[in-house]
Structure formats: C-alpha cells, structure tokens
Write a structure and sequence with these properties.
heterodimer; A: alpha+beta; Alpha-Beta Plaits; 2 domains; 4 helices; 9 strands; B: about 600 residues; alpha/beta; Rossmann fold; 3 domains; about 40% helix; globular
C-alpha cells in the first residue's frame, strides 16, 4: 500500500452492508425535509428511496420512510443523528426482510398498445392489486402496489409490451398485527 | 391583553429575560430596527466587532470562559455568511451560541434581493437548529427555544433569522420556559441506573492497567464536573490523560496527569492509551486526532464511554459500557456509590496498579516534550514555558490560533482550572484566538488574557485589535513568529520532500508598528536573553499588546504520531538518538 501522504488516518476495515428501512416522525414545518436529506448527504449516507406525507393534520406530524444502506455502525449513527434533530419526534428502524413488518411501494405504468396487448398487461399485473386508472384504444395506465423487487421485475416485463412511462413512490412500512411502532 | 410591541423590542425583551449582558455584532440594513432598539435596553451592551467572524469567535470566547451562551447579532447576506465559520467552529467544539441574523423583508425572500441569502439553508449543517421567523407572534417562543436548544444537552450554536418587516411588526411578547417537553439532542436527563454504576465500578476494580481519558465534555458540564473528576481520579489512583479541549479539567501539574494525548500528545499518554486494559472516556469523542489508526486503537482494552450525546457513542470506536449522561451528574452518583462499597480502595488497589505505574514511569523517562534549547535563538517551546512560568501565579486565560504554536501551548502551558483554555480544536480555525481573547476579556475583566498566536493565523483576524482598543480590553497577543505557516511547513518537510509550497509569508507587517497604528503597545523579543523582561513588560502593560516573539523558523512540533499509525509508534524528535538537554537547562 502506498504511504499515506495526508494528515488524516487511512480508512479501516469496512463492515457488512445492510439495507434498512427507517421511519421518522417529524413536525411538518418548513425545511424539515431539507434537514433530513441534508443530514444524509452531509454525512455521506445513502437514500435509496424516500416517502413523506403528513399523517396527523391536527398536530402537523409527517411520517417519513427512508430506505437506506450501510454498515451496522452507519445505520446506528443514522438513527442517533436523526433523533438529535429538533423537529424529529421518534425514529423506528427495520432491517429489510424482518418478518413482522409490511412494506409496499406504489407504481403507475403507462403502456401503449392495442386492446390485445392491454389484456396481457392486465394479466401480468394481476398479482399486484392492479387498478386501471385510464384507458384508451391505444394506451392504458395501471396502478400497482407491491414490493420493490416485484415492481422492478414488472417494469422489465412490461417493457416488452410497450411501457413508455413509469412513476414510482418510495417504500412505506407498517408493523403486522396489533403492535405499532414505538 | 398584553401590550403589543415591535419585533425588535421582542428580541431585546427575550435577551433580557435570558439575562444576556453582552451581544457581539455588526450592523447592516436588515438588522437596523434591532440596532435602533438597542439604546432602550441599558442592561445589554453591544460589542462592535470589525468583521462578523470576529464577532462570532468573540462570542465563543465569551461563552467558553464564562459558561454562559454567547450572543451574536449580524445582518443578512454577507453578515450571515461571514458568521458561518464561527458557527461551524462552535458546532464542532460544542460551544453554546445564539446567532440572530437580519433577513430581507418576507415579501422579498426568494427574489435575490439586495443582501439576500438563504441563511437558514446555509447554516443548517453548522447549527443544532435554526429558524426563519415569518410571524412576529412566533418570535418570543422561537427566541427562548433557541437559547434552550443552544445550552441544553451537548451545547452548540443556533440561529434565528428575522426578516426586516418582522422586526417592525407589532406582536405579543411572552417568556417561554422549558418549551421542549420532548427529548431533544440527547439532552434527555437520563437517570443513570445503579446497575450501570455497578458495571462501571466492577470494571474499575478488575483493571490493573487503567487510564482516564477525559475531554471537553467535562468542561462543558460545569466547574462541578471538574471537581468531581479530581475526586474520582484521586479515589482510584489511576492515571489520567486529556484531549486538547479537556485541558484544565484536571490540574496539569498533578503527578497522576500524563499530559495531553493524541497526534501531538505525550509519549506516556499515548502509550498508556495503547497498552491499557481499561479506558475510561469521560466527555471525549474518539476524534481522529486521538485515535490515529482506528483498527489498531488500544486493542486490548475494555472501554467505558460517558457522553451526553448518544450519537458520539459508537461513532468511531466500539465500547463495552456506554453511558449517556451529563458528566457532572454521572460522576456524582458514581463517586457516591463507589465510596459506599469500596472503603480504602486506593490503598488496597495500589499493588494491582503498581506495575502499570512503573511502566508509565519508564515512558515518562523519555521526556517526550523535551527539546534542544538554544542560547542564541528563541525556541518556541521555550517561549511558551517562560510565558507559563511568568503568568502561573495569576489566574490566566489562554486562547490560541491554530497550528504549531497551538500544540506547543497545549504541551507546555499547564492548566489547573477549567474554562481557562480556549482553542479551536474541531474545526481548527486559524484566526480564532484574537477575537476569542476579546470575548474572554469581556467575560473576565481584570484577568490576564493571552492569545498564544502564530503570525500567519493572527493576520486572518488582525482587524479585531481595533475592537480591543475601542473597548479598552488589555488582551495580549503573544505571536510565535517563524514567518511560516509552521504546521503546514512541518507536514511539507515530513511528507512532501521539503517542497515548501506557499507556506512562507514573504511580506509580513512590522508587528510593533502595526500595534502602534492600532493604538496599542508593540513589543518585540529577539533573543532568549531578553525574553523574560519583555514578557514581564507585556504582562504589566494595562493595554492591548502585540508581542512579536521572533522564534526559530525551522522548529518542528514533536512528539507526533504520523498519519495512519497506531499510538505506540510515535516520532519523538528530529533525531531520536540525539541527546536531549535536561529539563533544568530548558528552564534557564
């Protein structure tokens, strides 16, 4: 290894990377999303996807769901740093693949094609709660809700049938059963 | 119904209720209504700086030497951007600052108006929190919240951006106390459980090679924390080392103190950190200047980490026992519990740690802070030692700039009390020391305040001498003048084949004449012979002084841990074999 010519230390070993879903409850005030996003970019953390909306109109609480990747140490830092932000009320953290958590993403697909092709589209989407939002002789807009990987695959399959536009949300999450995030 | 008052008046009402005595600032278009209101509030004195960065560092110096939050008032646009360095500095070193900035009127925000900038956007990553106040009726709540955020938990800077129309608008004022019901910034007053304390005590009892590693958190926790730390250290009989920011929390001349650790720390402190079997970190953050190579940092030790900020724990180094707590509170309960169960621990444990102390004694024999003194030329270390000897009898406050002189000051000036040492450690801001000294002198009238400076650093904020003269603040700027950016030169010498790229200042001012032009006193010392007399002269002048101490240009700062090396691989000096003069000779 070449000798370090910097006043700083050389990087140490890097741990195993995990994918996590982090849910953050925040005051819905001006700039709050910038604070969260700025924390991630400023400290070099990844945001794979992000979903945010106000969930409590009276108290103005928004719920942000962030999908991120990092070593266990980085994930722990993300949690602790988020908790330090003034508008943050609570933070919940889940490892991708945990059993008692539900994840969903929503996607809109616009496919160009005749009615025959449109039938094929409906068939492919059948498993993923398809809703036909718009339909003409030449085009169809389908809404599906599914897991990220499923939507990835669906998009690939639809490409062959004339997919011309895709719009996707970030992942949202909820616990199974009567439990809620604490 | 409460009386309606202007936003500007609300600002001062809030400052009065927060018992603010001094604000440091610089006026401008977007804060004029606040400056107009100043005359109506006699209990608050404004200190006019010459640059907003200077005002910011002065507020930092004030805060760090007094334990109270520093207040900064700047205008929009360039006023705010000039304050960013000071805010970031305060953020890195956990200094409580409240910055109030003017903003263009609300209807002009977003139009690229004159002197407009996105102040809250720019300062978001360098403050604990910031606010843009768009409704005058929010103003008093936000201001009180700002003080609370700045001073609770791990302290830090906050900023309140107030558009000019809000300063004019009339609204209600109310004093809000403890508005933060929810936990915030790790400031939850976490009650330390007995089981945590017992684990702590158990680790202490099992250890035969322990060390205390303490930091700025002890200082920030207040004078009580330093007292408790001293008690715990003497109860256990363990050795103690301190980070740069923690100096003064434990007496620098005590035999249990091993000196500062880290990149330019002592041989004994760094080796003890590397070889210990128990590391007790109290209020320090495992900074990269301390740990060196993380993978080889103190490989064989159990580690305890006490910090008020949960995100400091486990960030760089994994620990065995983590306690989120205020230092003072933790130490108080720990000492109480320790005493209950361990009478005569000191005596009974002496044997267990005697081998360890023996080893430490051997490391100490290296005398890693020694240097080869000269009779012809002033060695910078010698200058700091003389300054220490000649000022130690009085309660002296030291600030520094950043570089070699800063490390020499940390190595050779011994601090015995907290809040006497103000240095920019985290951000490493050249130009910090002079304005910080102004703030320190404001908070401590009648006390001796010395900025141990380098000639390159001090020129970055030299204009603040004018502030010192205006307010008759007899600060002493003690410049170790080697005509180089010394630390840059040292790295270039050691790592860049002596290619001294742009680290020499060719056209330095005559500091004595410069002092005179500011209306203060200039003193120059060129030889070791005249040094003492000149230092005494400096101390005895009741005016601001610029002291030009002409030192050896080629001196390097040792010992040092080279980058990427573990603690036990220190460089001790230029030629390690060469005989280093004995301590007595240095003091002559």
């Amino acid at each position: 290894m070449p000798k370090s010519k910097s006043a700083y230390s050389v990087p140490g070993k890097i741990g195993k990377i995990e994918r996590h879903i982090i849910v953050v409850w925040v005051d819905n005030e001006a700039g709050v999303l910038a604070r969260i996003a700025g924390l991630f970019s400023g400290r070099g953390y990844n945001i794979e996807s992000l979903a945010v909306a106000e969930v409590d109109k009276k108290k103005h609480i928004s719920r942000i769901t962030i999908v991120t990747e990092g070593t266990p140490q980085v994930i722990e830092q993300i949690n602790l740093q988020l908790k330090k932000l003034v508008p943050v009320h609570k933070v919940a953290d889940f490892k991708r693949g945990e059993k008692d958590i539900l994840f969903r993403e929503l996607a809109l697909f616009k496919v160009l094609g005749n009615l025959k092709k449109q039938e094929k589209v409906k068939k492919i989407c059948k498993k993923f709660n398809p809703v036909i939002l718009d339909k003409t002789n030449k085009s169809i807009v389908v809404q599906v809700t599914a897991l990220r990987v499923e939507i990835d695959k669906l998009a690939l399959d639809l490409k062959r049938l004339g997919l011309i536009s895709t719009s996707r949300t970030g992942s949202v999450a909820m616990t199974k059963g009567s439990k809620i995030f604490n | 119904m409460p009386k309606l008052i202007s936003g500007a008046e609300i600002v001062f009402k809030a400052l009065e209720d927060q018992k603010v005595e001094y604000i440091f600032g610089y006026p401008g278009g977007a804060v004029l209504p606040i400056y107009d209101e100043l005359k109506n509030h006699e209990s608050i004195k404004h200190i006019l700086a010459r640059h907003e960065q200077g005002a910011g560092h002065a507020a930092e110096g004030y805060a760090r030497s007094s334990g109270k939050p520093g207040v900064l008032l700047v205008t929009s646009g360039p006023g705010a951007t000039n304050a960013v360095t000071a805010l970031t500095d305060a953020y890195m070193d956990s200094v409580p600052l409240v910055c109030i900035s003017g903003q263009v009127p609300t209807h002009l925000i977003g139009t690229d108006a004159f002197q407009e900038c996105d102040t809250t956007g720019i300062t978001r990553p360098c403050t604990k929190h910031n606010w843009l106040v768009k409704d005058v009726n929010d103003l008093s709540r936000v201001l009180h919240l700002a003080f609370e955020v700045a001073t609770t938990g791990r302290p830090g800077p906050v900023l309140v951006d107030i558009p000019k129309d809000i300063q004019f608008k009339k609204g209600k004022y109310k004093f809000f106390k403890n508005t933060l019901k929810k936990k915030l910034n790790g400031k939850t007053t976490h009650k330390v459980s007995n089981s945590e304390l017992d684990k702590f005590i158990d680790l202490i009892k099992k250890s035969s090679k322990p060390i205390f590693y303490t930091g700025g958190g002890v200082i920030n926790s207040g004078p009580e924390a330093s007292k408790n730390l001293r008690e715990l250290v003497s109860l256990t009989g363990f050795p103690i080392t301190s980070t740069l920011q923690g100096l003064g929390a434990y007496p620098g001349d005590d035999p249990q103190f091993l000196g500062m650790l880290g990149m330019h720390g002592t041989y004994e402190a760094n080796n003890a950190m590397h070889d210990c079997d128990l590391m007790i970190n109290i209020g320090a953050r495992f900074d990269d200047r301390i740990t060196g190579k993380v993978d080889e940092f103190s490989p064989g030790s159990k580690k305890i980490h006490v910090d008020i900020d949960p995100s400091s724990i486990g960030k760089n180094i994994k620990v065995d026992l983590a306690i989120v707590s205020d230092v003072s509170e933790l130490l108080k309960s720990l000492i109480k519990r320790f005493k209950e169960k361990n009478k005569n621990f000191l005596d009974s444990n002496k044997q267990k740690t005697s081998k360890w102390w023996g080893q430490i004694g051997k490391w100490r024999e290296k005398k890693s802070l020694n240097f080869i003194n000269s009779e012809k030329i002033i060695k910078p270390q010698h200058a700091v030692q003389r300054l220490y000897e000649l000022t130690k009898s009085q309660d002296t406050f030291i600030t520094t700039e950043v570089g070699q002189h800063q490390m020499w000051a940390a190595q050779h000036y011994k601090f015995n009390k907290p809040n006497r040492w103000m240095t920019s450690g985290g951000l490493g801001t050249m130009g910090y020391g002079l304005p910080a000294a102004i703030g320190v002198q404001i908070a401590n009238p009648g006390k001796l305040v010395v900025d141990i400076a380098g000639e390159a650093s001090v020129l970055m904020t030299m204009q603040e001498m004018s502030t010192a003269v205006q307010y008759r603040l007899p600060i002493k700027i003690f410049i170790l003048n080697n005509e180089y950016m010394g630390m840059v030169r040292q790295w270039q010498e050691l790592l860049h084949e002596k290619n001294y790229s742009e680290s020499y200042t060719a056209a330095l001012p005559d500091f004595v004449k410069l002092a005179e032009s500011y209306g203060c006193v200039g003193i120059r010392a060129k030889t070791p012979e005249e040094l003492d007399e000149k230092i005494k002269e400096m101390i005895n002048v009741d005016k601001p002084v610029i002291f030009d101490c002409v030192v050896d240009k080629a001196e390097n700062c040792f010992p040092m841990i080279p980058s990427g090396k573990p603690h036990n691989q220190m460089i001790l000096g230029p030629e390690e074999e060469e005989e280093i003069s004995d301590e007595g000779k240095i003091l002559v």
